[in-house]
Amino acid sequence: MSHLDRRSFLLTAGLTAAAGSLAVCSSGSNGTSSSTSGSTGSASSSASGGSSTAAPLSGTVTLTTWGSDQEVAAFKKIAADFKAARGAEVTVEVLPYDQIRTVIDRRLQAGNPPDLFRVSYTDVSGYASNGALADLSDAMDSAFAGQFFPALWNAVTMDGAPVGVPHHTDTSAIAYNKAHFAKAGITSVPDTLEGAWTWDEFVAVLEKLKGAVPEASPFAFNYQLYGAYRWFNTLFQAGGTVLDADLKNVTLNTDQAKKALSWTQSLYTKGLHAPSVLVKRPTYPDEIFPTQKISMIQTGDFLIPSLDAAIGKKFDWGVTYLPRDAAAATDLGGNAVVVTDQAKNKEAAIEFAKFLVTADNMKYFCEQTTVLPVRNDLVDAKLDFATRPDLMPVFQKQATTMPDALVKTTTMSAFPAINQALVDNMDQFLSNSSASVDSVISGLTGAIQKAL
Amino acid sequence: MAASAARRAERRAGLFMVSPALVVFSVFMFVPIGMTFWYSLHKYSGFGRMRWIGTDNYATILSDHTFWAAAKNTILYTAITVPIGVVAGLSAALLLNRWMPARGLFRALFYVPVVISGVASGIIFLRLFDPLLGILNQIMTSVGLPSIDWQGSGFWALMSIIIVSTWQGIGFGMVVYLAALQGIPREVYEAGIVDGAIGWKRFRHITWPLLRPTTFFLVVYSIIGSFQVFDVVYVLTRGGPGTSTTFLVQYAYDQGFNQRKQGYAAAIGVILYVVVLLFTLVQWRVTKDRDEA
Q1: Fewest Cβ atoms nearer than 10 Å: which of A129, A192, A304, B265?
Q2: Mean per-residue pLDDT over chain B, rounded
Q3: Is the pLDDT reported for residue A43 higher than 70?
Q4: Cβ B132–A288 below 8 Å, yes or no?
């Protein structure tokens, strides 16, 4: 497995820009450099049609999304700016995260979908391959495409034709309760990527927590439902892979995959992982962490605002890097915005999609919602995150450990079925202490191979 | 001739009067049932192109381990909840059929869960059963009992669903039994007293035999309901851990709406339809025979 320094990450996955952006912005500095602002403003005007000199639009478009309060507020602010600049009204419709996929599907089935909707990169192909999304080739040329990280631009294309715009990316790290750590006598927490705990060190920390804070579970992963694929972090940390280089064959029947599975299961059997937090569980670790019933969780940067609001002044918390074994690894998260083929006001919908991802608007959205930009011209931008800017450098550096192979796997068209294979097999495996590693490898291999 | 014309007029009037119900049933029942059969013969994601695959979905079901696990769970759930529901409903009815203070209030309290939506009940119990945050485990640990992993253990997850379903169902059984108990003529009991039938004997030799048609109705109705359990499962466990609480309707929903296999989900629905239809036919036949006797 290639472990990516910043440059090779860029070259191989097309995400180096993200990595670079994260590393450069790690100071969490306030303010935006005028040169960046100026250049991106220019790019957005010319390539996106987002300037006020573009042809005026009319009517209303509906953007359907899920989101935290901060995300919804950011969408609404950009929608208001769009109306002021272009004339068309954008209605931001907010649905619960767990329901948005089902609701969008039914509206598509009924022939009454929204004009645009927010969708994870892993789910774009499921809509595009069924003809639900508009071909935006005429509105988005290669110059426009060239503004974004190639891997994520590819994730919003179908047979070379764009169907939406990449909006942002995010990734996972570890959030921990400082009071519990103090109680357990854990005084040293990794503050560099290179110094991240090894798996053995991580288990030793969990055992200390288990002994010192018996009223809380030491840890919980964020592998739930549509995020089941985040178990691949553990797999890649062990040096394993999901698919071969051609993305044609499953490569889970390896010592590395067996080690990753055994290690994950051992956290449950040793009482180091919250027993009821499984893969199908309808509530998430980040909902429990603020109650101090879990000392440490694997979580995404996009949850910082909601965690901060829920925790308030109840306790101090920090973030550190994911543990590493043979390598460090984290997942590719993030979302795109796509335009439906049956959009009632397609022209305005396309223009709003482009407006949403101008450099200024993407930067604003990322700063407000603690996620990471996906434009090349924001690589060197300093982002002024609105909530807990002190935590973001860890996520930014952690993002440089997204393995190339994992990015490719995550953005392929078969990915929803791969994720579903994980939901079905890992939930069974982790809930049953006598389940064998071989049986889950067999189940996963069969289901994923069938999906390819 | 005149009689024949009158019959025709009566038939027309009858048809006219049932036509609104017929239209509603056609639109919301017959057409969807027909479409379900049609979908079950196709590969269909819910939108996009529909591809004819004949009986392939049914063939796939035969070798689908999760389907059979769901079928086994559904039968187990039915075998546990139906007797408990019937006995609990009868017990509540017997208790509340006699005079007692605040009888109306108790009847209402038993019936309230019936009118609360399954989703709302599920959310309430999700909070109660939550192994880390739930009040049930907090009470248990406060009195020195071990906490129960209501959602991480397959057995306890199934138990949690059975508890909620029973809580929801007692009120309905109680109301049906109350109606039946109040329909038993007082004279029958008075004659029984003359013959020494009091207490348990009165229940065993008079009440229970006269409640047999009601019990039969409740059993069949509950079996049909048990085969259709969904909302509580969806909210409480999503079928997990593993497939411990995966039931047929929940599995069909998962296939149709999460995995976008609407043709396959429709095939599961058709199988469920046939099973429920068999129970309905049994009930219809028995009721018909009894009415004609």
Answers
A1: A192
A2: 90
A3: no
A4: yes
**Other beta carbons within 10 Å of A246:** 6
Q: Which residues of A touch B (CB under 8 A)?
A: 101-102, 105-106, 108-109, 126, 129-132, 217, 225, 274-283, 288, 291, 293-294, 417, 420, 424, 427-432
- Per-residue model confidence as pLDDT tens digits over B248-270: 999 999 999 888 899 999 999 99
Residue in this structure with the two tokens 């192109």, named with its chain if needed? B49
Q: Is residue A406 part of a domain?
A: no
Query: Closest by alpha carbon to A435, among A281, A289, A279?
Result: A279
Chain B residues in contact with A428 (beta carbon < 8 A): 241-243
* pLDDT tens profile A113-144: 999 999 998 889 889 988 999 999 999 999 99
CA distance A388 to B230: 41
B64 CB within 8 Å of a chain A CB: no
pLDDT higher than 80, residue B217: yes
Residue A408 within any structural domain of the chain: no
Task: Inform me whether the C-beta atom of residue B213 falls under 8 Å from chain A C-beta atoms.
Answer: no
Residue at A95 is within a domain: yes
Specify the CATH number for the domain of residue A199: 3.40.190.10
Task: Provide the residue range defining the domain that includes A151.
Answer: 27-170+333-388
- Taking CA–CA distances from B129, the nearest residue in chain A reads A276
pLDDT in tens, B97-146: 988 888 889 999 999 999 998 889 988 998 888 877 788 888 888 888 88
Residues of B in contact with A126 (CB under 8 A): 260
Nearest to A276 among B48, B131, B238 (CB): B131
| Tokens read off for B133 | 């945050």
Distance between CA atoms of residues B89 and B113, nearest Å: 13
Shared-domain flag, residues A289 and A379:
no
Query: What CATH number should be reported for the domain holding residue B277?
Result: 1.10.3720.10
Total domains, chain A: 2
Of A388, A405, A430, which one is at a domain's C-terminal end?
A388
Residue with tokens 């057409």, as numbered in its chain: B31
Look at residues A228, A199, A227, A205 and name the one whose alpha carbon lies nearest to residue A218: A205
Chain A interface includes B238 (CB < 8 A) = yes
Contact A340, A61 (CB under 8 A): no
> ipTM score here?
0.76
Q: Are the C-beta atoms of residues A48 and A144 closer than 8 Å to each other?
A: yes
CB-based contact, B247 to chain A, within 8 Å: no
Q: Are residues A234 and A85 in the same domain?
A: no
- Most B CBs within 10 A among A112, A276, A284, hence the mutation to make, goes to A276
Please state the pTM of the whole predicted model.
Answer: 0.81
> Can you give the pLDDT at residue A5?
39
Q: What pLDDT sits at residue A54?
A: 72
User: Residue B116 domain-assigned?
Assistant: yes
Q: pLDDT grade, residue A38 (50/70/90)?
A: very low
